[in-house]
Design goal:
Distance between the termini: 49 Å
Number of domains: 2
Structural class: alpha/beta
Helix content: 25-40%
CATH architecture of the largest domain: 2-Layer Sandwich
CATH superfamily of the largest domain: Dihydrodipicolinate Reductase, domain 2
Shape: globular
Bound molecules: NADP nicotinamide-adenine-dinucleotide phosphate
Order of helices and strands: EHEHEEHEHEEEHEEHEEHEHEEEHHH
Number of strands: 16
Strand content: 15-25%
Strand order of the largest sheet: 4-3-2-1-5-6-8-7
Length: 349
């Protein structure tokens, strides 16, 4: 049985740990905590062993922690790093490389420059098998992951007929459970966003993709406004909607007024963490104009990368066939069921 450690127990780490704990093919060795706060008790109450850095053992004396991160990693086969952006690189250098341990990193890290954690960004729709021979792989961020689910089916169907993709990303300010970050009454822009380069890492450097990024005052998901320009008249919107009908992790919804409608529905039917784990195409604000399809979709920022980490873990640990890995992930995440419920609730009236 392979042993997996989840290093970091924040928005992403706590979700990953909880889902993969039900995976009978692996054992979750424990989770890493760095601050002695209420999340330590939360993790223990969910049945996780909590490990902490050796240098901080004293500050956790009021909690029943199981030992040090440095020690537990010696008996693991893979670590899923869920540290704050940039800290994963430090962990790679100080912990994972010296211990010759495989690691998955999250989208706040880099894949170019001095502090890159890997040369590969994973997207299960695009490059599943590429993860087989890599010891270190970065899971794309939420926006980067969602884009692969849109771009790859378009590329497969329309190929050279696609002239360019111009995308404006409206990013959420903070996550739902991140009560420490106040949501500022402002719209901020991002200079030199990482998203173009990250998406091109797995879609190909020649992808004609141009991205602008704005942060807006909400905790409820991201929205992408993507103009897809064709060489000649664009296909009909119904042809585009049909293209995504059977795509895993893509729901097509009608009558949604805003992102909170989706979260509220997810909460009402008790999806774990109020996550849908997918992107949602908003069909009634997707239209064709001459040679352009104006596509609007929302992206579940915290949920979308969690099943992706599980698929990636199976590629790196077991080199499973892609279809088998997806089937196993579906057993834990029930995304087909979630998609069906969402599509029934937000159906064309
Ligand atoms: N939030 C999202 O929507 C989202 C979506 C996709 C990807 N990501 C990426 O996922 C990563 C984690 O983001 P997050 O939102 O989960 O952050 P977060 O909620 O701030 O959680 C970060 C966690 O890392 C822990 N930590 C602190 N120092 C650490 C270290 N040296 N090594 C390992 N863990 C450490 C923190 O522990 P303590 O609390 O104990 O201090 C905390 O539990 C980032 O790369 C981010 O870009 C985030």
């Amino acid at each position: 049985m392979k042993r997996v450690f989840v290093n970091g127990y924040g928005s992403i780490g706590s979700r990953i740990a909880q889902f993969i704990a039900d995976d009978k093919e692996i054992e979750v060795a424990g989770v890493g905590k760095y601050s002695p706060d209420e999340k330590v008790a939360d993790a223990i109450s969910r049945g996780f062993k909590v490990y902490v850095p050796k240098s901080k053992m004293d500050s956790f004396k009021n909690y029943k922690v199981s030992g040090t991160i440095e020690e537990v990693l010696d008996s693991c086969d893979l670590v899923i790093d869920a540290a704050p952006g940039g800290v994963g690189y430090e962990n790679k250098k100080t912990l994972y490389e010296p211990k010759n341990l495989k690691a998955i990193f999250q989208g706040g890290e880099k894949v170019t420059g001095d502090k890159s954690v890997s040369t590969l960004i994973f997207n299960s729709r695009v490059n599943y098998e590429k993860a087989f021979e890599n010891k270190y792989v970065m899971q794309g961020s939420c926006n980067v992951t969602g884009m692969g689910r849109i771009l790859q089916p378009l590329k497969e169907k329309y190929g050279k007929k696609l002239k360019r993709f111009d995308a404006t990303l409206l990013r959420r300010w903070a996550d739902l459970e991140d009560t420490k970050t106040p949501v500022k009454d402002s719209i901020e822009w991002t200079k030199k966003p990482h998203h173009d380069e990250d998406v091109k890492n797995y879609m190909g450097a020649d992808t004609p993709l141009f991205i602008r990024v704005f942060k807006v005052p909400t905790r409820q998901m991201h929205v992408h406004l993507m103009d897809i320009r064709f060489d000649g008249p664009a296909p009909s919107t119904s042809e585009i909607i049909d293209l995504f009908k059977n795509e895993y992790g893509v729901a097509t919804l009608y009558g949604v007024k805003g992102t909170k409608d989706i979260r509220d529905f997810a909460e009402s039917i008790k999806f774990n963490f109020k996550d849908t784990n997918m992107i949602h195409i908003h069909a009634d604000v997707t239209e064709r104009q001459d040679d352009v399809i104006k596509l609007t979709y929302s992206d579940d920022q915290t949920g979308i990368v969690v099943p992706e980490n599980h698929i990636l873990m199976q590629a790196m640990l077991f080199k499973k066939k892609r279809a088998e890995a997806f089937k196993h992930t579906e057993e834990l995440f029930h995304m087909e069921e979630k998609k069906k419920l969402l599509q029934e609730h937000f159906s064309m009236k």
